[in-house]
Amino acid sequence: MLKGHNTFEVIFLAGFIVGSVIRKIYTARCRGVKTAKKYRSALDIILVGTAGVGMAMPLLYLFTPWLDFANYALPAWSGWVGTVVFAGAIFMLWRSHADLSRNWSATLRITGRHSLVTSGVYRYIRHPMYTAHLLWAIAQGLLLSNWLAGWAFLVLSIPLYLIRIPKEEQMMLEHFGEEYRSYMSRTGRLIPRIWK
Q1: Are 108 and 168 in contact (CB under 8 A)?
Q2: What pLDDT digit, counting tens, does each position of 75-124 carry?
Q3: Is there a contact between 153 and 53 (Cβ–Cβ < 8 Å)?
Q4: Which domain CATH number covers 65?
């Protein structure tokens, strides 16, 4: 049972459920897609797992008293800003999955019919799914007044992004060559490029 009656904790839980459903739907849609080449390593598995712990830690906080020792007070404005940021994260998560369609994979891999997606949110950002997760991590800290549950996802996901994004871009360069290099020159990594 969810402890307490904090509005922002309920908002977080609702967003967590919506985000999880989005991921489940697109994971199911991509089942059976043949892999042409895998780029997964033991380090990648560890980093994804560590970030996943940070993403799931709020459930421990929301449903048990185990993390209450790390509670602190947040101003009310923080929760409202967190709500807006979380809504943006959920939108970006959905849109990036929808735009990628069957090209999406939770692991670093090239599928048998992989195509370079440069439309939708990918027209502006090369890694909008990572942007969505970073927004989620920031929102989590703004919505949950607990040092561990609130900020764990942000802290634990940074090493993943610092290591995985360059590997993913190298994978795309190897597969798509000059087409991807040109795409890189006109898009931002995690936020839209303001200057050309």
Answers
A1: yes
A2: 999 999 999 999 999 999 999 999 998 777 777 777 767 889 999 999 99
A3: no
A4: 1.20.120.1630
